[in-house]
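Notes from hallway chat w/ T.B., transcribed later so I don't forget. T.B. wanted the structure written out for a chain they're using in a teaching module, and asked if we could keep both sequence and structure tokens in one place. Agreed to drop them here.
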Amino acid sequence: MMTGEREKQLMEAADLLLDARRTGVAIEDLPEALQPTTLDEAYFLQDVIALAYGEIGGWKIGAPSAEATPMFAPMPLAWMARDGAVVGGVRRVRGLEAEIAFLLGQDLPLRTQAYSSEEIAAAIASCHPVIEVIESGLLDPLKAAKMSMLGDLQMHGGFVYGPAVADWQKIDFKTEHVAIAVDGAVRVDRTGSNTSGNLMRLLPWLANEGAARTGGLKAGQWVTTGSWTGVTMADSNSAADVTFANAGAVHMRFE
């Protein structure tokens, strides 16, 4: 169990990362004494940071391999926008990732009996192509301590969703093709590149193993399921386009 002193240290860590995000003046890493040392501490840090931005609009979840345990982070509702959005505010990193996300149409409350894959599928209202905007209070989040990066919302900085995809259940996500372009130039072009192996395993995991933290998933929340393209960098005024072969397209621009 976390002590009050440790909570105080992690709250101080959250303040440092929030200040860095709000001002655009990044820190190299958290002071060693304030760095999360466990995943539970990183998740505590995430929750404190997310709380500063208001209501949770959903969750980002992914896994680095088909065998790895998924990791997840809250996504503030205030950072969510429709296709064609102009994304402004303090931006330093301006990273982009192509993703597939699901909008929930039914609540999946906390319960003792695990949800089946069929129950999860029935709770999904729609499937969408997505651009996750990557941002961080860390100067180079991939060079900072891993738990610092995870605690800083796993580099989450925005969520732009495209139109719903008809008959998404027929898409073979293991062979789906995607391209991401910046200012008209294709930067990444890949097939079957979601690192989780089978992205449809992620929602049942979040609804079951993740429920102790989320308190259950709610209708109207989004779940985005990990990068297909890695991080692609953009500049101010850059336009980004993500195009899936079967899962549609989504567009955005930075101020």
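Follow-up for T.B.: The mean pLDDT is 97. Might be a good example for the class.
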